[in-house]
Amino acid sequence: MDFDLSEDQRLLQDSLAKLLKDKYGFEQRKGYIKSETGWSREVWAAYAELGLLGMPFAEEDGGLGYGTVETMIVMEQMGRSLTLEPFVSTVVMGGGFLRHGATAEQRAAMVPQIAEGKLLLAFAHTEPQSRFDLNDVATTAKKDGAGWVIDGRKGVVVHGDTADQLIVTARISGGRRDRDGIGVFLVPATAQGVTRRGFGTSDGQRAADITFDNVKVGAEAELKGGLALAEQVADETIAALAAEAVGCMEAAKDLTVDYLKTRKQFGRPIGSFQSLQHRAAEMMVCLEQARSMAMLAAMMAGETDAAERRRQMRAVKIEVGRNARFVGQQTVQMHGGIAMTMEYAGGHYLKRLTVIENMFGDMDHHLAALSEEGGVFLAA
Amino acid sequence: MELRFTEEERAFRQEVRDWIDANLPADTRERMASGRTPTKAMQVDWQKRLYEKGWAVPHWPVEWGGQPWSAIKRFILSEEIQSTPAPSPLGFNCNMLGPVLIAFGTEEQKKFFLPKLASLDLWFCQGFSEPGAGSDLASLKTRAVREGDHYVVNGQKTWTTLAQHADWIFLLVRTDPGAAKQQEGISFLLVDMKTPGITVRPIITIDGAHEVNEVFFDDVKVPVANLVGTENRGWDCAKFLLSNERTGQARVGASKERIRRLKLIAKEAPGGARPVMEDPRFRSRLTDVEVQLKALEMTTLRVLADENRALSQRKPNPASSVLKIRGTELQQAISELYVMAAGPYGLAAPNDPEADGRNEPDVAADWQTLAQATYFNWRKQSIYGGSTEIQKNIMAKAFLGL
């Protein structure tokens, strides 16, 4: 058992930390939000140069062959800086779909482009009625000669507004909530019949509402794996988001503790008051518990037993969510009014943590499911 | 980063499991499984078996009966003992006094006491807290005055766990009331409980159990040879003792066992229309505790991996402070789940003729009558060994610089 990073992993962490220190001050971030895409093409190019965008892909496909620990390291740094770029959408989710569900030809065509920063992906799964259920799919895919015709509507497609290719779940057969009969399709965002309406999310990022009206794609557009593929990628994404949340929580805790030391009221630093000291200590407990779960997630993201992997990821999502909520809320509470303002970073950690909490299932969703599945520790 | 147990570690776990199965007496196993604490005889018998196997004090230096094991291997042994459940080696002997003697004791003290601590030939209890010195331990007043080759001890200790079983007590006493700082006038003594002038009076806790005691010292003569370390530097021993074996405090193995048993019980426990376990509200509470326990297990492993390093490479790890706080919170949360599972039959107190002179019928199952008693008793966990509030004071100072 060894929780240390390797030399290479440390190097990755340091070089990304340095890049973000240069490019991702809070004021710079405000500029990126105001730009046309809502994030920075320049930073994206810098990621490509660092090799981050080809990270999870096999070397023979044009990637670096990195694993889930490297994803954790990168996401934690991005969480610290509240980055806005479509890294999760393109590299974690898009990358997951391509690695597990695409043909060698598709990977050969797309991976080098992703690695160079020229191709953006987004995962379109949420529907108006589906809430967090990946199997609740009303969007349809009907056979059309050799290819498919896709009809339906997907909402809150994170970074769907700037994506070049959309990865879409659609029902090939069965009832709306059946686990069988779901296909996963690669659809060019510019295909005839795709209409995208971009909007801002509550954490300052971007998403799109997308309708598919008689959209024709070829036979090769269907990735192999169906719902199981989508669930595998969702689990990998939960692991990445857990690490991002840990980065957010750590930065928020540091910011808060600094503030407690400098802000004076009643003639003394507010950090000298025991009620705030204990709350800060509790934040630290929360951070460490979340960090433990992000590590568990990195370990379990590659687990081949899907049921086991899903149970562990549910535990990760619940525990990270619980602790993130406490740290996010207390960051605002202990700062007082200043963290209520858009001007100051503090409140933005709460915003990002809240978005993460509500992606791929909230605490109640996973708690109910995990209870049904027998809990965390199954009888031997 | 590699978070899985190695092949060798998994094989060791199986070896431990098999050995416990073959060696744990049936009556001890039964008593422990019902959620009771072991009797003195059970504790002594079991620890002697562990001692003979070389497993009572694996964390001690090899020359004093320890094993050249990794922290993880030691963790596996203690987790298996907890999850059987079997009695853990007596903490006062093995985790508290033993390491203090190894670090601060004279050769004579080590030679005389260490083997007896490991084998439980001598049962030690801990004389730290006093009526006026709880969280503020350094304010203790029990006085020891040197007269020739003896100290004469006068004062009172309290919350002395299992003093009724103890042969000896390790004691913090004030030897220099005039010291500039109160921490600087304290000494660490070993005292035979049979010495004239010692009186033990039981304290019955809210669960009805006799676990803790008051211990009174009235002109008790203690040979100077029983001083551990330097006179007036006993606080160093106390601090060292309190910082030891951080990972033990989380008791993840014991909590996992309690959860496993609760799941079996709740499957059968009547819950009106359906067994308790089929009530979605109960089940989701249980799962929620399991999730937190999983996180604590991971945090424990992180601290362990840290303890595996050479001392010189260790940094104070904030994760270790999490263990006492969350570990005790979760043990308490599990005890609440037992109360909920027991429902109305949990109202029945355990039948204890020794305590109340009545011998009345047991109307409920063991686990039902123990549910509330255990719940009441375990409120102590967030109080002893540095209360949750003290832990947070320490964290704020040591890690947050507040």
Would you kindly provide a written description of the structure presented here, covering whatever features stand out?
The complex is a heterodimer of chains A (380) and B (402). Helix content of chain A is 51%, strand content 16%. Chain A has 380 residues and is an alpha+beta fold. Chain A folds into three domains: 7-119, Butyryl-Coa Dehydrogenase, subunit A, domain 1; 122-224, Butyryl-CoA Dehydrogenase, subunit A, domain 2, CATH 2.40.110; 227-372, Butyryl-CoA Dehydrogenase, subunit A, domain 3 (Up-down Bundle), CATH 1.20.140. In chain A, the strands form three sheets. A four-stranded mixed sheet of chain A has the order 1-4-5-8. In chain A, strands 2-3-7-6 form a four-stranded antiparallel sheet, with no helix packed on it. A two-stranded antiparallel sheet of chain A has the order 9-10. Chain B is of the alpha+beta class. Chain B has three domains: 7-89, no CATH class; 124-232, Beta Barrel (Butyryl-CoA Dehydrogenase, subunit A, domain 2), CATH 2.40.110; 245-398, Butyryl-CoA Dehydrogenase, subunit A, domain 3, CATH 1.20.140. Chain B contains 13 helices and ten strands. A four-stranded mixed sheet of chain B has the order 1-4-5-8. A four-stranded antiparallel sheet of chain B has the order 2-3-7-6, with no helix packed on it. In chain B, strands 9-10 form a two-stranded antiparallel ribbon. In chain B, helix 1 (7-23) runs parallel beside helix 4 (71-83) and helix 10 (318-342) packs antiparallel against helix 13 (388-398). In chain B, 44% of the residues are buried. The chains are: A alpha+beta (380), B alpha+beta (402). Chains A and B meet through helix 7, helix 8, helix 9 and helix 11 of A and helix 8, helix 9, helix 10 and helix 13 of B.
